[in-house]
Design a protein that fits this description.
The chain is of the alpha/beta class and 516 residues long. 31% of the residues lie in helices and 23% in strands. The longest helix has 23 residues. The protein binds xanthosine-5'-monophosphate.
């Protein structure tokens, strides 16, 4: 019997605005339990409708000592479900139940040694270390509560009313700096709340196939694919659900990494046998980009051309009622404004290279409840080759924004060759997976060099590699000097047109990851 997502035991995480609330959700799902993230201002009736087996209250930047700070929804603590409060969540719970919270002079921030009492929350926890980040502290417990862990500076580091299954921790179990924090969250959802650990990607795959069939009925779907992991997973999943009623569209801009267009076509046609309309539009893109050197202008031209080509491809694909999209959970979650104001949705989308917004389609978004790492796990479940699953993100406008200045066919070809060497060497030296993104940028600067007996006057190539968790901020990757030296030698020797290689050591901010 197939289960629907609604039938899984469910944990609700109420977000009080912490930067790391999504990590709580990730940890709960890693424990095999389905969870959803809602703003703290969600009415009790909406929470009740979801019939949660447990509720987790996140941290947040506000202070419960202030009158207008965020509060726990009225009635939540009378629902009879286990509750775990984290940092601000603990303080809000203590405040609501008659305890006392006070602001302290000093903010406590960083690692702290901790002593745990015997509690179900800490079962199997070995490392006596936690991560603290708070200004306010609980100074008196609500009736029924007792202390279950303390640090030197924080006597109420963890508290519990075990009869009502209310738990609170002042530290952050969701971050990696609390070494056994994941275990505590697992203990809470499995042992204390008694949730079943049945949220697996194998189960998700079966359920979403059933859901897609129900949503789409006997209609047809088109799906834009780019070779990126999200669109590839959407397409593979839809194909399992509805077979040849799915047609994929691949707009080949001619601005992809070397061989990538052929790999995308090979994956869909040969590996998956999914009907694919391949629009080889490289010449059109180059033609429209001719002599354009303004970065914004380039993006606009590429965006418009993408839509033109996609629309042309749609006609070849035949009539369809649905358009599939690879929207992920982080795009869906409503962000909470830190000081308790109305919830706002912050999205930072690069629309260039995205799908045309077309009202004639109904939308099917099978990944909208998944985090990126879950999409990868699902991809493996669907038999997508590792090469596609672990691949670095790639911008819609492709190599055009890695060629500052006007784009020509010759420059694209030079850049593809140099980029391929860099990527090949990263793989060979086991450095690829350690970087979030790595690529080459062909600069519109020529410099003098010597090669053999002759003088050269050729392009400079910049190598860029960054580490990041979400692309919003990034550090330049500290790749070994010998490695960079080796890559530079290979590029100058093997790629005609480049005689100098530099490494970009700018982080984001102040830089961006891409150069345009
Ligand atoms: P920046 O350069 O803004 O990039 O630091 C952040 C992340 O977004 C990618 N990126 C894009 N992705 N269309 C996309 O689909 C775009 O127009 C675009 N511009 C940047 C970039 O590669 C990095 O991963």
């Amino acid at each position: 019997m197939l289960m629907k997502a609604e039938q899984h035991d469910k944990v609700i995480i109420l977000d009080f605005g912490s930067q790391v609330t999504q990590l709580i959700a990730r940890r709960v799902r890693e424990a095999g339990v389905y969870c959803e993230l809602l703003p703290f201002s969600t009415p009790l009736s909406d929470i009740g409708k979801r019939a949660p087996k447990a509720v987790i209250l996140s941290g947040g930047p506000a202070s419960v000592t202030e009158k207008d700070s965020p509060r726990i929804p009225d009635g939540l603590l009378e629902m009879g479900v286990p509750v775990l409060g984290i940092c601000y969540g603990l303080q809000a719970m203590c405040d609501a139940l008659g305890g006392k919270v006070e602001s302290s002079e000093n903010r406590e921030f960083g690692r702290a040694a901790i002593a745990f009492d015997d509690s179900k929350l800490f079962s199997g926890v070995l490392k006596k270390e936690v991560w603290m980040s708070h200004g306010d502290s609980v100074t008196a417990l609500p009736p029924g509560f007792k202390v279950i862990a303390s640090t030197k500076t924080c006597p109420y580091a963890a508290v519990a009313d075990e009869r009502r299954k209310f738990y609170g921790v002042q530290f952050h179990p969701e971050v990696v700096h609390t070494p056994d924090g994941a275990r505590m969250l697992k203990n809470f959802v499995l042992e204390i709340a008694g949730c079943k650990a049945d949220w697996t990607m194998a189960a998700f795959r079966d359920e979403s196939i059933a859901k897609i069939r129900e949503q789409v009925g006997s209609n047809r779907v088109i799906c834009g694919v780019s070779g990126g992991v999200d669109s590839t997973v959407v397409a593979a999943l839809l194909h399992e659900a509805i077979g040849d009623r799915l047609t994929c569209i691949f707009v080949d801009t001619g601005l992809m990494r070397r061989n990538e267009a052929a790999e995308v076509v090979g994956l869909f046609r040969d590996h998956f046998n999914i009907p694919l309309v391949h629009e080889d539009a490289g010449a059109l893109f180059l033609d429209r980009l001719k002599d354009v050197d303004d970065p914004e202008q380039k993006r606009k031209i590429i965006g418009k051309t993408f839509i033109d080509v996609f629309t042309r491809a749609e006609k070849k694909a035949g009539a369809a009622e649905f358009l599939a999209q690879g929207t992920l959970y982080p795009d869906v979650i409503e962000s909470v404004s830190p000081h308790g104001g109305p919830a706002v949705t912050i999205k930072s989308h690069h629309n260039v290279g995205g799908m045309p917004k077309d009202v004639k389609f109904k939308i099917v978004e099978p990944l909208r409840m998944l985090f990126k790492d879950e999409v990868r796990a699902l991809g493996r479940e669907l038999g997508i080759p590792e090469k596609f699953i672990g691949r670095h993100p790639f911008p819609g406008p492709g190599l055009a924004i890695r060629i500052p200045g006007a784009v020509t066919a010759e420059k694209v070809s030079i850049l593809q060759k140099a980029d391929a060497i860099f990527i090949e060497e990263l793989h060979k030296n086991n450095l690829y997976a350690e970087t979030w993104q790595a690529f080459a940028v062909l600069l519109p600067v020529k410099t003098v060099g010597v090669m053999g007996d002759g003088r050269t006057y050729d392009h400079v190539l910049a190598l860029r590699a960054v580490t990041s968790v979400d692309g919003m901020t990034a550090d330049f990757a500290a790749l070994p000097h010998e490695f960079l030296g080796h890559v530079a030698v290979r590029i100058v020797n093997e790629v005609r047109g480049i005689n100098r290689v530099v490494y970009d050591i700018t982080s984001k901010p102040p830089g961006t990851i891409e150069w345009e």
